[in-house]
Design goal:
With 318 residues, the protein is an alpha+beta fold. The chain is globular. The chain folds into 2 domains: 11-133, no CATH class; 167-314, Nucleoside Triphosphate Pyrophosphohydrolase (Alpha-Beta Complex), CATH 3.90.79. The protein contains 6 helices and 17 strands. The longest helix is centred in the middle third of the chain and has 18 residues, at 116-133. Strand 13 (232-242) and strand 14 (247-255) form a beta hairpin. InterPro entries: NAD-cap_RNA_hydrolase_NudC, NADH_PPase-like_N, NudC-like_C, NUDIX_hydrolase-like_dom_sf, NUDIX_hydrolase_CS, NUDIX_hydrolase_dom.
Length: 318
């Protein structure tokens, strides 16, 4: 995805909202803002889907007025920020309203297709909704918590407060540093991923950053643990939220020797191999690339930062 200045960014790293954090503790302003707000309805009972216009290309996120909510929401209104035109935006967890010309869609499905404004609203709303779903009780006391600060914290009866957190994870496109169509990248097929219709998905290597560890150190460790390969020339490429349920993906590119033997950890990686730019380009163009056993290569979904990293390498931005 490309921002207005021409800078390539991961698809779920785009937004036009002013988060206006100073308004979160102003109940008078929030009450007035709610009356004139645009509201995104998310249905946590339906995997966090929201409404998009069924006939729009690209998809357009559907926001409603406060009086158009279907029944009693499961959550209090969560203040996401203020649009460039000055209109506040909230999100609520609720069954989706039945509106003609709309359909339910998941962020994974449409995130890369949405304009910057819609991608930012949907991503923030889903991340916040998922955090609330897992923090109904205080981790310190076990007491029930309630929503406070317009959705940006939870507080227990004793005044103990917790704030939304994301789990940092690294993801890396390992490549051989070679230019041209024969240059290669190392992708892995996760042991937990299902196969479907004669295709097997391969993606970048990834893992959570451990306590006391830098993101770069996590890159070295995870690649070594998952495929037994040493990397160098680690370069940061960008980050994006991955609210399934609550990660921040820190994207890197790194160089490895394609002659090094690949030894996968079978608990994590079912298979790993090097692919050339020619093979990746063919797959993106819809041409089958064999990965053995009668299966063809399937790349990561377009809303992921993994495919963003693959495109960066494919286009020579390493």
């Amino acid at each position: 995805m490309v921002r207005g200045g021409g800078e390539a960014v991961p698809p779920l790293a785009r937004s036009t909202l002013d988060r206006a954090a100073h308004r979160r503790a102003d109940p008078q302003w929030l009450a007035e803002a709610w009356e004139r707000a645009r509201v995104l309805v998310l249905d946590s009972a339906d995997d966090g889907r929201a409404l998009v216009r069924a006939d729009a290309s690209p998809p357009e996120l559907v926001l409603v007025g406060p009086g158009e909510l279907p029944g009693v929401p499961r959550s209090v209104p969560m203040f996401l920020g203020v649009e460039p035109d000055g209109v506040p935006v909230f999100a609520v967890d609720s069954p989706l309203p039945e509106l003609p010309g709309t359909r339910a869609a998941h962020l994974r499905e449409v995130g890369h297709l949405l304009v910057d404004r819609d991608a930012g609203i949907f991503t923030a709303a889903l991340a916040l909704t998922n955090w609330h779903a897992g923090h109904g009780y205080s981790p310190a006391t076990g007491h029930p918590t309630r929503v406070d600060e317009a959705g940006w914290s939870r507080i227990d009866p004793d005044g103990g407060r917790v704030w939304p957190r994301t789990d940092p994870a690294m993801i890396v496109l390992v490549h051989d540093g070679a230019a041209g169509q024969d240059g290669g990248c190392l992708l892995g097929s996760n042991a937990a991923w299902p196969r479907s219709r004669g295709r097997r998905r391969y993606s970048c290597l990834a893992g959570f950053v451990e306590p006391g560890e830098s993101a770069e150190a996590a890159v070295v460790r995870e690649v070594r643990e998952e495929v037994g390969v040493a990397v160098e020339e680690i370069a940061y490429a960008g980050s994006q939220s991955w609210p399934f349920p609550g990660s921040l993906m820190l994207g890197f590119l790194a160089v490895a020797d394609p002659g090094s033997p690949v030894h996968v950890d079978p608990a994590e990686i079912a298979h790993a191999r090097w692919f050339t730019r020619r093979e990746i380009g063919a797959t993106l163009a819809g041409r089958p690339v064999s990965v053995g056993d009668g299966e063809h290569l399937l790349l990561p979904p377009p809303s992921s930062i993994a495919l963003f990293l693959i495109h960066r390498w494919l286009d020579g931005h390493c």
